[in-house]
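[audit] Reproducing an earlier prediction to check determinism. Same input, same settings, fresh worker. If the tokens differ from the archived copy the diff job will pick it up downstream; this log only records the rerun itself.
[audit] input (110 residues):
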Amino acid sequence: DVPRVAPTEFLLEQPYSIPVGHVSVVYGEGKIGKSKLSQALAVSVALGKPFLGADTRKGKVFIADFESDEREAVPSLFKIAKGIGVNPTLLSRRLTYKSYLKTGHAVCYL
């Protein structure tokens, strides 16, 4: 008997297809917008809003940031929420942000 495998659930639908519960990596040259792209994705998922035209699965989001601190990142997250027409205070229920910039920890994206 072949065991049944549950269908994969996606956080972000096609054409991007980011699976729930799997590691996904955003990589590229420095200063091309990877952090802003990731922040926009995080806000979209937290609020259940489309991202780059694709539907998202609404869910709680945790951002472990190794490049910025709260003074830089939180206003950016709020600006993104405002840009998609949502009151940024709604993020506080769905998105948790933690900066590890000055902790000396190794960079590890999960």
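[audit] rerun output stored. Observation attached for the diff report: The longest strand covers residues 61-65.
[audit] end
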